[in-house]
């Protein structure tokens, strides 16, 4: 009653591996990575001015402050007004001191806002620097 339809020895042996589906999956993952990689860089998109600068030597414990063109100040990824920044930044430096603060100011940002942010950072006593793009020399 328990008969088999065929014997396993009747089946032909195949030593080939079909990698078509594996290649399809690999290319799909590659395309997904290519599309999502720029979004994973993070940060606020600003046009920093060009200057004769050296590459940043990132400190492990660095904080990035960004001033957008509309005057919004971003403490890492958190948007703040200048008044909120004046109260929040010193509290943050007391609670979690940082080795370095990098200020990224949009080239179209109002100088007054950038100067006020610099003032707050400088009064905190932490080392700080301005971020700029290297000059594109022709």
Distance between the termini: 87 Å
Please count the beta strands (DSSP E, at least 2 residues each): 7
The whole-angstrom Rg is 28 Å
Identify the CATH class of the largest domain: Alpha Beta
Unreliable spans are none
CATH topology of the largest domain: Nucleotidyltransferase, domain 5
Number of helices: 3
Can you write the helix and strand succession as a string?
Answer: HEEEEHEHEE
Shape: elongated
* Tally of discrete structural domains: 2
Residue fraction in strands: 15-25%
CATH architectural label of the largest domain: 2-Layer Sandwich
Strand order of the largest sheet: 4-3-2-5-6
- Biggest pleated-sheet summary: 5 strands, mixed
Indicate the topology.
Elements lengths: L19 H21 L9 E2 L10 E6 L5 E3 L2 E3 L1 H14 L4 E6 L5 H13 L3 E4 L2 E2 L4
Parallel strand pairs: 1-7, 2-5, 5-6
Antiparallel strand pairs: 2-3, 3-4
